[in-house]
Amino acid sequence: MIEKKEVNGVAYREEKDSIGSKAVPEDVYYGVQSLRAAENFHITGLYMHPEIINSLAYIKKAAAITNCEAGLLDKKIASAIVQACDEILEGKMHKDFIVDPIQGGAGTSLNMNANEVIANRAIEILGGEKGDYSIVNPNDHVNCSQSTNDVIPTAGKMTSLRLLKRTQKELRRLYDALCQKAQEFDHVIKMGRTQMQDAVPIRLGQEFKAYSVAIMRDINRMDRAMDEMRTLNMGGTAVGTGINADPMYLRRIVPNLAEISGMELVQAFDLIDATQNLDAFVAVSGAIKACAVTLSKIANDLRLLSSGPRAGFNEINLPAKQNGSSIMPGKVNPVIPEVVNQVAFNIIGNDVTITMAAEAGQLELNAFEPIVFYCMFQSIDTLGYAVQTFVDNCVSGITANENRCRYLVENSVGIITAICPHVGYQKAADVAKRAIQSGDSVKKLILEEGLLTEEQLNAILDPVSMTEPGISGKDLLMKNM
After folding, report:
1. Cα–Cα distance between 418 and 201 in angstroms, integer?
2. pTM recorded for the entire structure
3. Which of these, 376, 343, 344, lies nearest to 358 by C-alpha position?
């Protein structure tokens, strides 16, 4: 018989655990252990990520099916658990996952939150009242053959994989947008710069093509890291030895989980290793960080190339998205690249946290999975959102200031590099020095000294010859002579 009481007009049911008794609101699906955890961990003020809740539902559903196959769980109870899990996957009862993402206990609070919610809904399905754990028990039935120590890392890996798929989709959109700009700007000759100084000419399209190649490399790097996320320690229970797990359950849990979740998942060949170590999360975080660094560098470039418009490079125009100042009329700031930079800074910090948390594990378990997941999910999500706005509100709308780009090339000393093979290094250096001192163009000084004819000079300074490997100014010069 469930003991009930009313306080200030609110109905409560009395639940017990190893700590003692506690009043739980009558209408909620969570139980006493979830409530204790919610009271203990006021850390972020946030709720669990919806995708890890879904991952837990997949795990508990697969476990119920597998335990039923192994004869460890009554078919009616298993069916009720499966139905409860399906309802969670439909988005129901998520509000009953009340524990803070950052919590002590290696994720036990989150695992028990899932066990209690599923048990109480299964009890309802079977015609009972919430809290009557004699019908469906959170530990004995929902958590059968499991431990927090194999459930939580598995949920973290499944969630990471799903979130990464979404982020990769945005990254592929960015890759396509950059490729499109590379083609659009392929004819625009501009000054290349090294160490923020004029170097040699390059085409604007080549710069954007290089950005696209870097993004594809990040996508591929993520693919390799994600492969490590597919290896699970389910069946290992507490420390990887599989204590309290039936041999049939041990064989079938991961294949069943893969089937019902639609994900490519495999069981680790060494469950003890897979329970002890979080290096797979470090690898994925590293791939996310590398991508964030790439994006931040591209964002830096776009801010520089669009700087001005009168007193900067002004080689490209970024879409104007909002007023840039409360005091300076007409000022428009590069707000989208700026937010991409800030997301990158945060991801780099998260990577440090994940690295330290993975390193801090002891012996058979790492207790710091909650902070790893909190940082990992935030990094993946924010990266995806940043890329989305980068594509939609910045990259797709970039235009080139072609005349400005060409002017800077023609008036730069950097083109002397292309002339150097034809007049010699020392003579080229003298011309460059004179150009800097006088403000005259290199082309003008070359012609004045009679070092080359205008026809020869035009051939050498052909945009293609200066920006394409394998096509030399000498070849074009000989062709035009």
Report:
1. 9
2. 0.92
3. 376
Angle ∠(39,42,46) on CA atoms, nearest 5? 115
Report strand pairing: 399-400 vs 316-317: antiparallel
Q: Consecutive 10-residue runs of the chain (481 residues): their mean pLDDT?
A: 83 93 96 96 96 98 98 98 98 98 96 98 98 97 98 98 98 98 96 92 96 98 95 97 96 98 97 97 98 98 94 95 76 93 98 98 96 98 98 98 92 82 88 87 87 85 76 52 48
Q: What is the pLDDT of residue 478?
A: 53
From CA 275, how far away is CA 37, in angstroms rounded? 23
Integer Rg of the chain from CA: 31
Handedness of CA 52, 56, 61, 62 (dihedral sign): positive
Catalytic residues, which ones? 325
For the record, the structure tokens of 42 come out as 């006021």
**Residue 202: beta bridge partners?**
190
Task: With beta carbons less than 8 A apart as the criterion, state whether 63 and 36 touch.
Answer: no
Return d(Cα 12, Cα 4) in angstroms, integer. Answer: 6
Q: Quick check: 17 and 69 in contact, CB under 8 A?
A: no
Q: For 9, left (φ over 0), alpha (ψ -120 to 50), or beta?
A: left
SS3 label, residue 267: strand
Which 8-state DSSP code applies to residue 365?
B
Distance of CA 201 to the CA centre of its chain: 35
